[in-house]
């Protein structure tokens, strides 16, 4: 029997988007709680054993809390059968993409202006993020796009791909506003991004038609 799943997160895309993408594209039933919407008391949850590292997201699998976004994605992939499974090459690529996305996330955390963090004395970090970090990540990813010119795995629907897409999407929203890094210079990566963006389940996620509800998708990273 499929395990029961409950995702707890805040009111922003950030680390919620990759997990909702993995859950929805994996065709899994899940309950979602948004602590900023008041679905539950985050302070009380933090004080309990339900937040293993005092942070969100937390994915409850049959009531057991799993923390760390990457770990949650791996678990979702295993449950949904979208982690590459017995195909070791696909499994490896999907796993690599999850770790690579975390590296991009680190650059964002260092250089980006967010809903809650102003630029302050990080002007150089912000410049380096746009001029060096993103182009370098994108160029390396471009070389890994293989299947059909718009996918990284033989299925094109692994958790690693949805995880990566979720951060590309958030960077694209920033880039759209600031006009600083565009996927246009990386045609295969762009084809991948566009393919996933055009999927019906992705559209439903972005339109807020998921268990997380319409209020989830505030843009966390601004510029
Ligand atoms: N390494 C963790 C980082 C999680 C994290 O930074 N969570 C932030 C929100 S994105 C958080 O819970 N902040 C609220 C708090 O610390 O109270 C992961 O991958 O999930």
UniProtKB/TrEMBL annotation:
Residues in GST C-terminal domain copies: 87-215
Domain GST N-terminal: 3-84
A GO BP entry: glutathione metabolic process
InterPro entries: Glutathione-S-Trfase_C-like, Glutathione-S-Trfase_C_sf, Glutathione_S-Trfase_N, GST_C, GST_superfamily, Thioredoxin-like_sf
Pfam families cross-referenced by the UniProt entry: GST_C_3, GST_N_2
Molecular function terms from GO: glutathione transferase activity
Protein's recorded name: Predicted protein
